[in-house]
Structures are given as structure tokens and as C-alpha cells.
Amino acid sequence: MAANSAATAPGFPLMHVARYDPTTGKTEDFGPVTDRYDQVYFHGSAYVDGTLFLAETDSGVATLWEVKVPSAVREIA
Asked: Which residues, in sequence order, are CB contacts of 16 under 8 Å at separation 6+?
């Protein structure tokens, strides 16, 4: 592995928001919340009524992000 390969991997040093559906095995990557900071590592999260709340402090400022998560359309048999 090259010395700088971790820096270019998705989610490092900016964590991404993603969704995994265990019934289909499908993962959707919605990308990073922001590119305003060099580092964003989420330390806490809560999902409430379609909004994902993410807490982080690595940018040097305590930040709470509110991310609207696109709803999944699922057929129920």
C-alpha cells in the first residue's frame, strides 16, 4: 500500500454519509457532509424522522451536522 493511499480512500479524512440495506446488500454513498474542513470524523449520531444528526470535534470546532437522508422506496409484498 502506498504511503498516501489512506488519504485518498473514500471517507478519509472526511467521513461520508452512507446507507446500507441488509435485505438487498446495496450500499449507497452520499459523499462527505462538507469539504470545508481538513478532517471530519463523526463521534456521535442519531437518526430522527428522516434527519441524521452527526456530532464531531476534529475540525477544531464542536459541530452538529443535520443531514436530510433521502427516503428509500421499497415494495412490501
From this structure: 10, 29, 30, 31, 32
Number of helices (H), then strands (E), in the chain: 1, 5
Kindly state whether residue 61 falls inside one of the protein's structural domains.
yes
- Residue 20 domain boundaries: 5-68
- Residues ≥6 apart with Cβ < 8 Å to 49: none
**H or E element that contains 6:** helix 5-8
Total number of domains constituting the chain: 1
- Mean pLDDT (whole number) for 15-32: 87
Torsion, Cα of 11, 40, 45, 34 (10° steps): -80
Average pLDDT over residues 15-22: 85
| pLDDT score of 23 more than 60 | yes
- pLDDT of 44 over the 80 cut: yes
Q: Is pLDDT of 15 > 70?
A: yes
